[in-house]
Amino acid sequence: DFVDNAVHSDTILIISYSTKNKVFDIVSIPRDSYIDFTDTRFRKLTEVYAYLYKHNRKDKHLAAKKLVELIEQKIFVSEELKFNIPYYIVINYEGFKKLIDTIGKIKIYVSEPMHYDDNAGKLHIHFDVGEYLMEGESALKFVRYRCSRGDIGRIGRQQQFFNSVMRELISPKTIIKLPSILLNARESVYTNLTFWEIINLL
Predict the structure, then answer these.
(1) 91 with 188: CB under 8 angstroms?
(2) What do you get for the CA distance between the two ends of the chain, in Å?
(3) In this model, does residue 153 exceed pLDDT 80?
(4) Is pLDDT above 60 for 9?
(5) Residues 97, 100, 102, 105, CA torsion sign
(6) Could you tell me the pTM of the whole model?
């Protein structure tokens, strides 16, 4: 997101995927997690990303690559947890909405009332309990909403939403839309995955 004239990371997900079994594992890292980073006074991951973005010529690829390296070095540090993260994907709010609109409406069940108004930030979220078919704008509001449980509740909703998106992505009706999805994502999604690597994932 864009706050105080800086680009922050709103959501950080570590995702592994088995192409053989079509199974995803998702680990969410709260954006306000503290990390030992000596280059700046900033310690929260979301602030560190903003720093890396600003000090790497506002290049999202470089900022993402360096943040991945930091996460590998500072968070996954034990012998049991240490592993390599070969790929990254960065997407902004507009790109997220465009991506969902291209995929098609995503079925989501809202398990508790969600109501929030931020006039200054022009963010208004209103969902009652029930099942929804969410387009891009509604989906963004759903994944951004924070309840009384803070980041923990939001992480649960984001994982719920991501699983629904991935089920939709690997369905035959969506695969035929893949060229359009990749074309629309080109201007707002930043990744080191190649076109054919993405195809092979599906």
Answers:
(1) yes
(2) 29
(3) yes
(4) yes
(5) negative
(6) 0.81
